[in-house]
Amino acid sequence: MKRFLPFLIFLSCATTEKKEEEVMVKEAKPITVSEIKVVEKTLPNGLHILAAKKDKLPIFHMEIVIREGSVLDPSGKEGLANLVGSLVDEGTKTKNSTQIAEYLESLGANFEVSVGKTQTTITARSLTSDADNLLDIVSEIIISPTFPQKEFQREKSRQIASIKNNLSNPNYVTSIKLDALIYEGTPLAHPTDGYVESIEKITREDVVNFHKNYWLPNLSYIVVVSDLEPEEAIGKVEKYFSGWQRKDVSLPDIPQISAKKKVEIFHMDGINQAYIRLAFPVNITRNSPDYNKLRVANYILGGSGFSSRILKKIRVEKGYAYSAYSYVMPNIVWKDGKYPSIFIAGLQTRVETSEDATNTLIELIKEAKEKGFTQEELDAAKGFYNGYIARLSETYSQVANLLSTRYLYGLPNMFWIKDIEEIRNLSLEDINGAAKKYIDVENFVLLIVTDTTKAKIKNLKI
Predict the structure, then answer these.
(1) Whether residue 20 has pLDDT greater than 50
(2) What pTM was estimated for this model as a whole?
(3) Which CATH architecture has domain 38-241?
(4) Helix/strand number for the chain, H first, E second
């Protein structure tokens, strides 16, 4: 009898969750949360600051977002933006890399740089009592890095070794191959960390010039979440960043991402799994009136774990994969261009089940478009979002991320609460209409990374 206990517990939990979802949907109580007061100011140098107060802890959390990334890498020197981000804290006019690291450690502060395709995000955090010290060192790192030759060579060698190592990782290979297919013909197609041969060509002068040309206040905004009054937090940021010199710059346009069917089966020696991805551009933006409709449709299709159609069929019923999913990646924001969001579905399965697993995934996506979803599935999705979205503003970093998203996409204040209210009022016709309108079963890219000497993939239903 003991062997059945976990299953019984699972059934009990599932039943309880379902009842809770039903209650949440039926009651639909008004959402009562304190509005987060956001104060904003643009400095004369073009730097925009957003600040919000959170009383929970004496924390000063800041995020600096610079609207530049690997999209600006010169051809043949892919990985330059990422290398710049990796080197900014390796030396300034007053401190070397060791002194910077020791100073941040003495503050008990966190500092990290993340470089993406169209933006670079610097995150820093300390106790509020150390906010001035944190702002002093962070502003120095961002405004006046020196990129010492010794550190440049060391970091360059480290990144080359990292890329070589990553190329033996099927997940990494799948990720960069998918980007190459989705963004083919645009400067978004290459890996953020570049290629071995492109990193080898980058000089210290390239790094210095890239920083000088693109790490600019007029391409940036700062979000602060702390227990300070917003006006006081802005005053502190202004004190340390007002001297950051602006520079007019002309950013290149990004070609539109085209929708067309592309299939690639990529060979990797010796792996016994198949890494499967299906993706297509979706003509919708994060601030579109239809965004939450598609968001809920995707939740039912592949975004809700064990209750999603994709995981139920591929893992629970067929036993093909531990994880199978789908999600909608919101559109990039670049200049005044309107770019699509990207729908991505994926799974990892055994080589011998790769063909049927791929066909099953395609069938599920087609079924969602053609037949839509059920009222029961919609009610369960509403129950989830009713509880989930309100919890998105519990931590300092979560609030900062929400404020950044709000500013980047031009969303209303407290948009995440408005999202709940909007989702509560969605009808079955709304989400089925979104699935029919936005899911593309004709013009998708399909990537399978596997050992093609073992995988017998001959009859894909595409």
Answers:
(1) no
(2) 0.90
(3) 2-Layer Sandwich (3.30)
(4) 16, 11
* Type of residue numbered 345: A
Residue linked to tokens 């995020």: 63
C-beta of residue 221 within 8 angstroms of C-beta of residue 48: yes
CA end-to-end distance (rounded Å), the chain? 46
Q: Where are the domains of the chain?
A: 38-241, 262-450
Contact 373, 300 (CB under 8 A): yes
List own/partner pairs for 209-214 with CB under 8 A and 24 or more apart. Answer: 210/72, 210/80, 210/81, 210/84, 211/84, 211/88, 211/145, 211/147, 212/247, 213/247, 213/249, 214/66, 214/68, 214/72, 214/81, 214/249
Burial of 366 (0-12, 13-18, 19+ CB in 10 A): middle
Helix (H, G, I), strand (E, B) or coil at 276: strand
| CA distance linking residue 432 with residue 372, whole number of Å | 5
User: What are the residues whose beta carbons fall under 8 Å from the beta carbon of 200, sequence distance 6 or more?
Assistant: 156, 160
The H-or-E segment that residue 405 falls in is: helix 396-409
Residues 6+ apart with CB under 8 A from 366: 441
Which of 40-44, 162-166, 304-308, 379-383 comes out lowest in average pLDDT? 304-308
Distance CA 208, CA 168 (A): 32
Angstrom distance (rounded) from CA 100 to CA 80 = 23
- Look up residue 291 and give its two tokens: 């965004």
Q: How far apart are CA 449 and CA 192, in angstroms?
A: 20
The span from the CA of 18 to the CA of 3, in Å, is: 24
Residue 4 has pLDDT above 60, yes or no: no
Are 38-241 and 262-450 equal in CATH topology? yes
Contact yes or no for 317/332 (Cβ under 8 A): no
**Which CATH number among 3.20.20.80, 1.10.10.60, 1.10.260.40, 3.30.830.10 corresponds to the domain 262-450?**
3.30.830.10
